[in-house]
Automatic annotation (TrEMBL):
A single GO BP: protein secretion by the type II secretion system
Coiled coil: 147-174
Entries under Pfam families matching the protein: T2SSF
Protein name as catalogued: Type II secretion system protein F
Similarity-based family: Belongs to the GSP F family.
């Protein structure tokens, strides 16, 4: 069922209450007339109503992030566990939302539910924010009559997955930071510092050492072509991003390549296993059949190597294989995870064992990222020291030989 788009705006108002006391505040309405009508219905005589001024640094106009969805889910779970009805809970959460886009979306969900649509169906109208896994879990909660429990489970799942993503981003950021800082420092020295020395060297009237000549030539090239180099880097980055997004083959190649990067690859392996176990545990606990749960895990794992492996596991399980044997056959999961899955199957506590596997590998990722951070700090100093030291030596070599030149 289509939902009529609600175009709400935030208005600042000043007026007098029933006792004649001056009061002011903010409210959401479609226009000024609607805002005044709403104030009058609350017993307030409006004197001034105007659109809220939004700073360019405000969160109001920012896009909805996955962390916002996790927070929304946690709020709804808390509301429903406290006995607040679903529609009223959506109203409360929408009123408290800082981002206009999020507020508008929640109001649309509320209106859809008010008109008789299932909560899961209302959420499915926004597939960019509520994927199939999310909607299926909510639908399972609705059908079992335990929506508040399911929302709490989804909230925990989303929070842990987003925390894991943040750790992976942190791990990828440090090596990039080393490269960027090194390039920026080198560019500044070549464009601003080396030319000063070059003028001094010209007055010597002698041939420069090979290393110094190389740096001076590099400086001249950088001064002449810096804009072209910058444009080439920007275009390369843009082309990579577009190709990665549009070409599945290239996307898959990158997924396989990053797993082979020293240190980083190990972190990504552990993160993929943690996502697999966390997603499978959550869906299996919700009563989703194992084969369907594996489909959800394949979509959430975030790497083509593990996605293909999980699809292989699903095919094996669907033909009667045990989960442990199917996981073993892929050849990508570590022995410890395989043994724990086997123990969980035998004991009838697969959900709990998968949860333990997820927690273990999430902790491994956390420790690995912290270790990488500690490793990268001295590495940054070494890179900068080598670049700056090399340029300084190149610039001072002619000065050290000045006596020979003059003689």
């Amino acid at each position: 069922m289509a939902v009529k788009e609600v175009k709400l705006q935030t208005f600042e108002w000043q007026g007098k209450d029933k006792s004649g006391n001056a009061t002011k505040g903010k409210l959401d309405a479609t226009n000024v007339a609607a805002a005044k009508a709403r104030l009058r219905s609350q017993g307030i005589i409006p004197k001034r109503v105007s659109k809220e001024r939004v700073s360019m640094f405000s969160n109001k106009n920012k896009a909805i992030k996955p962390l916002d969805i996790a927070f929304f889910t946690r709020q709804m779970a808390t509301m429903m566990k406290s006995g607040v009805p679903l529609i009223q809970g959506l109203e409360i959460v929408a009123n408290g939302a800082e981002k206009d886009k999020l507020k508008k979306m929640i109001y649309q969900i509320r209106d859809s539910v008010s008109s008789g649509t299932d909560f899961s169906t209302a959420l499915a109208q926004f597939p960019d924010y509520f994927d199939d896994l999310y909607c299926n879990l909510v639908r399972a909660g609705e059908q079992s009559g335990a929506l508040e429990t399911m929302l709490d489970r989804i909230a925990s799942y989303k929070e842990k997955i987003e925390a894991l993503k943040a750790k992976i981003r942190k791990a990828m950021t440090y090596p990039a930071a080393v490269v960027v800082v090194g390039i920026v420092v080198t560019a500044i020295l070549l464009v601003k510092v080396v030319p000063v020395f070059e003028d001094l060297f010209t007055s010597f009237g002698a041939d420069l050492p090979a290393f110094t000549r190389f740096v001076v030539d590099l400086s001249e090239y950088a001064q002449k072509w810096w804009f072209v180099a910058l444009l080439a880097v920007a275009l390369t980055g843009y082309a990579f991003q577009r190709t990665h997004k549009k070409s599945q083959r290239f996307h898959d190649w990158v997924d396989r390549a990053v797993l082979k990067i020293p240190v980083i690859g190990k972190i990504l392996h552990q993160a993929a296993i943690a996502r697999f176990a966390r997603t499978l545990s959550t869906t299996f606990a919700a009563g989703v059949p194992l084969v369907e749960a594996l489909d959800s895990a394949a979509g959430a794992v975030g790497n083509v190597v593990y996605r293909n492996a999980i699809l292989q596991i699903r095919n094996g399980v669907s033909t009667g294989q045990s989960l442990q044997n199917a996981v073993t056959m892929t050849g990508v999961f570590p022995n410890m995870a395989i043994q724990m899955i086997g123990i969980g199957e035998e004991a009838g506590s697969l959900e709990a064992m998968l949860d333990k596997i997820a927690s273990f590998y999430e902790e491994q990722v956390d420790n690995a990222v912290d270790a990488l951070s500690s490793l990268m700090e001295p590495m940054i100093m070494v890179v900068l020291g080598t670049l700056v030291g090399g340029l300084v030596i190149a610039m001072y070599l002619p000065i050290f030989q000045l006596g020979n030149v003059v003689g």
